[in-house]
């Protein structure tokens, strides 16, 4: 009887033990840094051991959700008078800045900051700009490695305009020879380094710019000349970017470059022995390539000028990802040949049906591919018979693996799969995945939800037709 009581007592004692508090202090700081700031502060009342843990964060995340107890959704105040709207916005901004400053006064003894993220609307020389510069300096003095600034909130009523000088100017001179910054993400601001801060970004490995005003070609040259260790560089919808010149003496470690919808852009000159991947979305521009290791390309195409340029200037391409709504217009009989391509990936959007005619053109143009991925998206799934017209046979000797995503069971999608099964004579595996893929860049995708009828109806329809075509040596996987 006494033994049983002792066992029960030991079980109760074990259950009452605070295992979380026994974790290493540095690990507790990391855990609290992943919480909202107000939630992390509340942990100080748990016990005397927890009183000061929140004062040693590894990340500083300053946005409306973290720093404002009560917020005003912008669409809901549109009906107010201009004076009242101005007063609300000023009170909101002053509360945000005051709360951040108060929080930083409590964590001023922290020795190391990994990440600083600020998402709030700031204007050049407007309210709170000096405070923002102090927050950046606070993080830099604590050897910050990642800075992420988005200086315009979604749906903000009075957005800063890059054309009227209202964009916040990023303080490049804050970074010196001792900088530890490895990743910099900027949105809705000016980035125009001068010669005086030529080496401020020498430790950067990743630079991502979204709707950033780069001022001039000279400022871009100064920026790139200071990024000795840059490996990944992204320009998205940037302003005052007429020409992009990447020279052999700049960015000697750069492997990935993305240029997306920079509407003023007229030309891109790439001279690099290291660059491996280029992603380009935009209108027709002048390209000049001296990049022998550039073997992967992603682009959105509406006509075949870009793919013709790639096949001529980059014969070494091994990976090609194209997004196009009108693939039949792009892949004409004049579509060029890629002799060394190993991996072809197509993002194809259709309203009512998928076009089959471009498939044999693609197979002819890429005689050495071993992997083919088709990311389909058909918005309206109409009932129709399998196509009565099949393009002429186009046998492919090297294609071993095919993946089709986003399939909904549409007859035109099934026709594409059947045509590939009939013509890929060395095929080993076909994967049919109903989850649509959304491409994020740099080889990363996210999955969307499948259509509601997939598991109940459409999957069985796809299985019925494809299993009649698949050979005994081919593995067919329908998810």
TrEMBL record:
It comes from the Eukaryota. This is Uncharacterized protein.
């Amino acid at each position: 009887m006494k033994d049983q009581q002792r066992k029960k007592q030991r079980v109760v004692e074990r259950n009452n033990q605070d295992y979380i508090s026994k974790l290493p202090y540095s690990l507790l700081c990391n855990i609290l840094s992943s919480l909202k700031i107000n939630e992390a502060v509340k942990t100080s009342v748990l016990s005397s051991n927890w009183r000061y843990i929140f004062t040693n964060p590894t990340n500083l995340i300053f946005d409306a959700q973290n720093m404002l107890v009560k917020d005003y959704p912008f669409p809901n105040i549109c009906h107010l008078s201009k004076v009242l709207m101005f007063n609300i916005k000023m009170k909101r901004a002053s509360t945000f800045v005051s709360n951040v400053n108060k929080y930083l006064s409590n964590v001023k003894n922290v020795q190391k900051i990994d990440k600083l993220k600020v998402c709030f609307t700031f204007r050049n020389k407007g309210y709170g700009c000096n405070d923002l510069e102090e927050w950046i300096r606070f993080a830099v003095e604590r050897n910050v490695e990642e800075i992420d600034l988005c200086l315009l909130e979604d749906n903000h009523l009075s957005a800063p305009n890059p054309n009227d000088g209202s964009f916040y100017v990023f303080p490049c001179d804050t970074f010196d020879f001792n900088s530890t910054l490895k990743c910099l993400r900027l949105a809705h601001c000016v980035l125009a380094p001068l010669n005086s801060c030529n080496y401020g970004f020498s430790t950067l490995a990743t630079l991502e710019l979204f709707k950033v005003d780069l001022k001039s070609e000279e400022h871009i040259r100064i920026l790139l000349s200071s990024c000795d260790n840059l490996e990944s560089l992204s320009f998205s919808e940037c302003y005052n970017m007429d020409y992009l010149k990447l020279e052999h003496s700049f960015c000697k470690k750069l492997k990935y470059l993305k240029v997306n919808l920079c509407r003023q852009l007229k030309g891109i000159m790439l001279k690099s022995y290291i660059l491996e991947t280029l992603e380009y979305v935009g209108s027709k521009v002048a390209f000049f390539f001296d990049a022998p290791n550039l073997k992967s390309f992603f682009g959105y195409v509406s006509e075949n000028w870009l793919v013709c340029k790639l096949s001529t200037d980059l014969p070494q391409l091994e990976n090609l990802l194209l997004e196009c709504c009108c693939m039949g217009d792009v892949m004409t009989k004049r579509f060029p040949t890629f002799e060394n391509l190993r991996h072809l990936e197509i993002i194809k959007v259709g309203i009512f049906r998928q076009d089959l005619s471009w498939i044999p053109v693609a197979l002819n143009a890429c005689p050495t591919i071993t992997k083919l991925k088709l990311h389909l998206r058909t918005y309206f799934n109409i009932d129709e018979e399998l196509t009565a017209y099949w393009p002429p046979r186009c046998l492919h000797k090297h294609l071993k693996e095919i993946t089709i995503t986003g399939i909904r069971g549409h007859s035109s999608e099934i026709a594409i799969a059947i045509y590939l099964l009939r013509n890929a004579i060395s095929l080993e595996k076909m994967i049919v995945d109903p989850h649509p893929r959304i491409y994020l860049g740099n080889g990363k995708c996210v999955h969307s939800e499948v259509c509601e009828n997939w598991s109940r109806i459409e999957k069985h329809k796809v299985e019925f037709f494809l299993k009649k075509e698949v050979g005994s040596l081919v593995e067919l996987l329908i998810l």
